[in-house]
Amino acid sequence: MLHEADRRIYFPTVGFSESLNLSVATALVCQRLIDWFPALRGDLTDEAKDALRKEWFPQLTSSPDTWIAAPSTIGVLPDVRRDPSRTETGQNPWVSKKIRRRELDLEQVQSRQKSSKASSPPQR
Fold first, then answer.
1. C-alpha dist (Å) from residue 58 to 27, 29, 61, 119
2. C-alpha 63: how far from chain center
3. What's this model's pTM, rounded to 2 decimal places?
4. Whether 34 contacts 20, CB under 8 Å
5. Contact between 86 and 80 (Cβ < 8 Å)
6. Rounded to whole angstroms, how far apart are CA atoms 64 and 62?
7. Which stretches does the entry tag as region Disordered (predicted)?
8. Where are the domains of the chain?
9. How far apart are CA 114 and CA 106, in angstroms?
10. 87: which residues sit within 8 A by CB, 6+ positions away?
11. Which residue in 34, 66, 100, 120 has a CA-CA distance of 20 to 30 Å to 74?
12. What is the C-alpha separation between 47 and 24, in angstroms, rounded?
């Protein structure tokens, strides 16, 4: 396969990331190019963006009829991964039940919970 390639690229990596597959490596290259050259993002009109969303969103769900029947729900999906307001409004990131239970068993967490309950006003 390497004989057929036009070029060979090496990504200097450290640790477990040395086992990156081709799709991850390609995504990293694309992201770096967009960081360096923001104009590569393109300049689609809002109408063109909506047309692409109407074409792609039904392919992302197991029930495309729901998307097609309610086109008003098609819009820009929020990127909640980097939304700092989620933690400010009390919407904590998802944590598995196993990890949550393990954390609740920690002494530090239990003492914090006791102190927060003691300082909060009684509920009616």
1. 24, 28, 6, 49
2. 22
3. 0.32
4. no
5. yes
6. 6
7. 105-124
8. 2-73
9. 13
10. 93
11. 34
12. 31
Residues in the chain: 124
Secondary structure of 7-63 as H, E, C letters: CCCCCCCCHHHHHCCHHHHHHHHHHHHHHHCHHHHCCCCHHHHHHHHHHHHHHHCCC
Q: In angstroms, rounded to a whole number, what is the distance separating the alpha carbons of residues 109 and 103?
A: 7
Q: Which tokens belong to 33?
A: 């190019």
Q: What is the C-alpha separation between 78 and 88, in angstroms, rounded?
A: 16
What are 97's two structure tokens? 């039940």
